[in-house]
Write a structure and sequence with these properties.
Blueprint (H helix, E strand, L loop, with lengths): L8 H16 L3 H6 L13 H8 L6 H8 L4 H10 L7 H8 L5 H10 L8 H8 L4 H16 L5 H14 L5 H14 L4 H9 L7 H11 L5
């Protein structure tokens, strides 16, 4: 379902400028290799270049919103950089997460925007409670970035630890791989608990369980 925006000439002019910038930076080979990512438009521009282009533009919520709902890979990633931190709240965050359909978007959304918002720790459990795989993944990825930067509340960590016991048996790669990502970071805080947990996993309960066990053990020193 397409999202409708009230026409704003200034915003549309900025969007057209972004399109021209991306067209000049287009990489056809990379774009073709990313064809499986299910975008309406994909210029194949690499992440560092996308962020260089975004640095030439002013931060603006109307522009960021317009870009995020474009279903164009580069525009969506730009949106995560251009959205003013103070303009992002839980209501908007939930709308943005609904548009995530691959892990690159989840990572860029959490890295460039969500982790910087005051109170983002409170969002973690809300994302985790969703039945949508990419929303769940957002919860674990957001918690992981915030743990790395020491900006996470203990309540958010506790929510992940509690929920991952259920999500680890998911058949969705985006879910169980995000659980593994969280556990690898959590091991830096509580390696004994993580080691005991992964050692005690019943790998017959799903392909994700065995995958998580093998993946997390790579960071444990035993």
């Amino acid at each position: 379902m397409e999202t409708m925006f009230r026409y704003d000439e200034a915003v549309e002019n900025q969007v057209n400028r972004v399109k021209k910038m991306l067209h000049l930076s287009m990489n056809g080979v990379v774009s073709e290799n990313m064809s499986s990512l299910d975008y309406q438009l994909n210029y194949g521009v690499l992440l560092p270049r996308i962020k260089e282009l975004a640095a030439e533009l002013e931060r603006s919520f109307p522009l960021a919103q317009r870009l995020w709902f474009s279903n164009c890979r580069e525009m969506m990633i730009m949106a995560t950089v251009l959205c003013p931190i103070e303009s992002m709240n839980l209501k908007e965050a939930l709308k943005w997460v609904e548009r995530c359909h691959n892990m690159e978007l989840v990572e860029q959304l959490c890295l460039n925007l969500f982790r910087k918002v005051d109170g983002a720790s409170e969002w973690v459990s809300i994302f985790l409670s969703s039945s949508a795989p990419f929303a769940k993944a957002t919860g674990y990825v957001l918690a992981s970035f915030m743990m790395r930067n020491e900006t996470i509340a203990q309540s958010a960590i506790d929510a992940c630890v509690e929920k991952l016991r259920e999500d680890i048996v998911s058949d969705e790669y985006v879910v169980y791989s995000s659980v593994a990502r969280f556990l690898r970071l959590y091991a830096e805080r509580n390696s004994e608990w993580v080691a005991a947990y992964v050692d005690g996993l019943d790998t017959t309960k799903g392909v994700g369980v065995a995958w998580v066990q093998d993946n997390v053990r790579t960071v444990l020193n035993y």
